[in-house]
Design brief:
homodimer; alpha/beta; UDP-N-acetylmuramoyl-L-alanine:D-glutamate ligase; about 40% helix; globular
Chain lengths: ~325, ~325
Amino acid sequence: MTHTTDVVGVGAAIVDILARVDDATIEGLGMPKGAMSLVDADQSKSIYGALKDTTERSGGSVANTIAALGALGSKTAFIGKRRDDQFGEIFAHDITTSGTKFPTPAATQGEETARCMVMVTPDAERTMATYLGVSGDLGPADVDAATVKDAGILYLEGYLWDKPDAKEAFRAAMKLAHEAGRRVALSLSDPFCVDRYRESFREIVAGDVDILFANEAELLSLYEMDDFDAAMDKVAGEVDIAAVTRSEKGAVIAYGSERHGIPAEAIDTLVDTTGAGDLFAAGFLFGMANEKSLDLCGAMGCMASSVVIQMLGARCGDELHAAFAKQGWV
Amino acid sequence: MTHTTDVVGVGAAIVDILARVDDATIEGLGMPKGAMSLVDADQSKSIYGALKDTTERSGGSVANTIAALGALGSKTAFIGKRRDDQFGEIFAHDITTSGTKFPTPAATQGEETARCMVMVTPDAERTMATYLGVSGDLGPADVDAATVKDAGILYLEGYLWDKPDAKEAFRAAMKLAHEAGRRVALSLSDPFCVDRYRESFREIVAGDVDILFANEAELLSLYEMDDFDAAMDKVAGEVDIAAVTRSEKGAVIAYGSERHGIPAEAIDTLVDTTGAGDLFAAGFLFGMANEKSLDLCGAMGCMASSVVIQMLGARCGDELHAAFAKQGWV
C-alpha cells in the first residue's frame, strides 16, 4: 500500500535537562540508577536544584527516533503534546527542523511542557527523572487520523503507558494504523516501565505489535524469564520482527525462526548513553523504510546507536547523517 | 578594605541557543562572522528557524565569567535581569548553583528572557545574534548597592552599553564601587560594540576603569590604531591593568611600563570558541582575587580559556575546576 510518510511517532514531547553528576548524587536522590522514574512538579524542582551546569536539548524517546529518521532523509511525522511555553518552543523547533511534520497544536492550558532531568554519571550511564507535564494529556482526539493512516509504520513508546489518556491515544492510533494496513512498532522503553504494565504490554505485544524494540532486560522482564534465547523464541512467536539490543554485545533480530546477531560498532569514547535505544530504533526503522535486509537494518541500528553514545544528549542529526553517508547508506 | 564577595558582575542574563552551521548559513543571514549582532524579536525568530539540532545552555558574557569564578570557589554575585519564564529559570538555576548570589528578582512583565543564538561554523568560530529581551531593561534601581559595595571587584560588559537604561545602571554601579574603594573591571566585549560606542568607552576607560579586558581587535578599534604595541602603551597610561588576548598567541598584560607576555595553552581539539574571552577573564580575576602575580593571573586566564574552547558552550564549571586542580591552583 502506498504511503507518503515512512514513520509516524506518537510519544512524549520532552526537553532534556542534562547534567553530569556523581554516583552519590543519584543515591542521595533515591533514584534507581540507569532507569527512568516519573516525578511530579515538586520533585522535579527539587532534583533540578541538585544539578549544576545544565545543558538543555530536545528529547523524548520516540521523538528522538523520529528526529533522527528525519535527519537521515526519511519522511516522518510526530504526534505529541507540548505547552505554548519556551520548552515547547524548543521541542517544536527541533523536531520540525529535522524535516518532521508535527500536526499537534501547542496546548494553551494545562501543565508545562515535559522535562526530563538526565543525570549522567562518570561511567556514562544516564539516570532519568521525568516530569511528564502536559505531554501526558495526549488523548485519542490528538491522534491525527490522516497522519497515522498515511504512514507505513506507526511507532509508539512504552513510557507514555503511565498515563491513561495517552494509553487510549495509543490504542486509537494502533487501530487506525491496522485498519489502513500499516505496521505498528513499539519500544518497551524501560525495565521499570515493563514492570508496571507487564500484563498490558504482553497483551498488545501479542495482539497489536508487528515490530518490537526492547533491550535484553526489558524483554526478560516482559516474560519474567531468565533465559535470553527462550525469551527470543517467545517474542518471535508473537510479533513479526523483534529487535533486541544488548549494549556492547550488539543486537539480535528475531524473525520467525531466524535469528540475526548484529555486532556492536567499535567506539572511541563512551560519553553518555542517553538515546542509545532511541537511535538504534531510528537506524533500524530507516533500514526497514528503505526495504533493506534484516542484517543491514540491524547494522544501521548499531551504527546510529554508536553515534549518539559518543556525545551528550540524544539529538545528533548532523553526526548521524555523516556516519551513514560514510557507509554509503544515505 | 575587607570584603566578603570577590567579584560582582553586572550584565545580561542570557540563555544561549547553540547550533552548528555552515558558512553559507551565516552569509545567507547577512551576519558578520565572529561578531555579536543585536536582533529584535522578529529577527530572532527567523534566525532560530534557520538552525537545526539546537543545544540550550546558560550564557551571557559577564555571567559566564562569574559562574566560572563561582565554580573555582571564589565568592561571587551577579546582577542582571531575566523574566519569570523558562529561560529565566534556566539562567537563574545555573548561576546560583555555581555558588553565586543573584539578588535581582525575576521581572514579572516586559519582554522575554534574553536569548543568544550562537552559530558555530566548522572552523569552531562562533557568530552570535542576541535578542536582549528584558535583560536590556536593567536600570540603576536594579543595582543592589550592598552587593556592589561588598565586592572587591565590580565587573561589567561592553555588550549592555547598547541599552540606555543599562548604561545608567553601569554608571551607578561604578560610582558605588569607587565610593566604597573597590576596583572596576570592564570587558570591551566585541569590536562592533566598540565601534558603536567608541567615544563613550574611551571616556570610561580613561576615567573609571581599573582593569580592562579586551582582545587585540577591540583594543585597536578603541583607539583606532594599527600598532598593537602603541595601543598597549596608550591603554597602560589609562588603566591600572590591561589584559589583552590574542587568540593562539596568548595574552599580553600591561601594568604601568611592565608588559607580561603569556603563551596560550596547547589544546587537543578546538571545538567552539564561545566563551573564550569570558573564561580568560574568569581565570585572570580568580588570580587577582587570590593576590597572585600578573604572570600567574595571565596563565590562569589562558588555562581557563583553553578549557572552554574544547567544548560546546560557555559554561564548563566542572572541567575548569578539574583543570585548575591539576595545576594545584584550587
